[in-house]
Specification:
Helix 7 links the parallel strand 5 and strand 6. The chain is 34% helix and 18% strand. Strands 2-1-3-4-6-5-8-7 form an 8-stranded mixed sheet, sandwiched between helices.
Length: 262
């Protein structure tokens, strides 16, 4: 499937700032799913935020929901028609903060959804405020003296909650991200892919990393690929481990439901 068939080119150019990581995320999505997705059976669900707008660029059915409620809407869609492939996409603020409770419970249920969380460490669209994923001591419009909080690591949370698949990559590792999305798309149950990305406008400007290339280099330096023995590594050194945090085949919610109903 060519890129013009995967994306709604009539909506181009997109609304993203120069240097935004969402372009790489979209490119990786196309490369991962072009040979396996049936766009007539795909539903994209987004909430509020820059990354959550990606749902409107894919040439499938899509729904743009209220802030933090994308997973709840997606759950309803999947229960209404289990034959659909349902993908939720959004940022760390939408999925991990305002939508945090839905994230936890969808992972606990092992709901049959693929959630792609584009984590740029900030509320980009709504003004550059900190999110629960913002690094400790980083600057934002609401923490001009530095973030006193410690960040939440969503990928570890959903893995502990029982998700069938949980992985984290960054836009500086596009080939690994493509393979990860391929794996996640083909599995059942709750699948969570966190993509560390860059936001030159909301995060870079506040942290004096003004050039996208400079911010890209900063992100690359902040990440490392886990070895198997470090699968449960804890982020105590300010760096982010990348790789798979869960890859199991627990019975999914839809499978459990069918078994109960007979």
């Amino acid at each position: 499937m060519e890129i013009e068939e995967f994306f709604r080119m009539d909506r181009w150019p997109n609304s993203y700032c120069p240097g935004c990581g969402n372009g790489i995320v979209m490119n990786c999505m196309h490369r991962a799913m072009r040979d396996m997705v049936n766009l007539d059976r795909l539903v994209m669900v987004g909430g509020i935020g820059c990354s959550a707008r990606i749902d409107g660029y894919v040439f499938s059915d899509a729904i743009h929901t209220t802030h933090g409620r994308a997973i709840a809407f997606a759950t309803g869609i999947k229960l209404g028609n289990p034959e659909l492939d349902v993908i939720v996409i959004g940022g760390d603020g939408d999925i991990g903060a305002i939508g945090g409770n839905h994230l936890i419970n969808a992972a606990r249920r092992n709901m049959d959804l693929l959630v792609i969380c584009v984590n740029n460490w900030i509320y980009g669209m709504t003004g550059g405020q900190i999110s629960p994923a913002s690094p400790h001591e980083c600057m934002s419009t609401t923490t001009p003296l530095g973030n006193p909080e410690y960040s939440f690591e969503f990928v570890k949370l959903v893995a502990e909650c029982g998700a069938n698949y949980a992985a984290r990559w960054s836009i500086t590792h596009p080939f690994q991200l493509v393979n990860c999305l391929k794996t996640a798309f083909q599995k059942k149950g709750f699948r969570f892919v966190e993509v560390l990305s860059i936001c030159p406008t909301g995060f870079g400007r506040n942290n004096k990393i003004n050039e996208p290339a400079e911010l890209y280099k900063f992100l690359k330096e902040k990440t490392y690929i886990m070895k198997d023995e470090n699968r449960i590594a804890v982020n105590l050194d300010g760096k982010f481990p990348l790789g798979e945090f869960a890859n199991i085949d627990r019975e999914s919610y839809i499978e459990s439901l069918k078994k109960i109903r007979g």
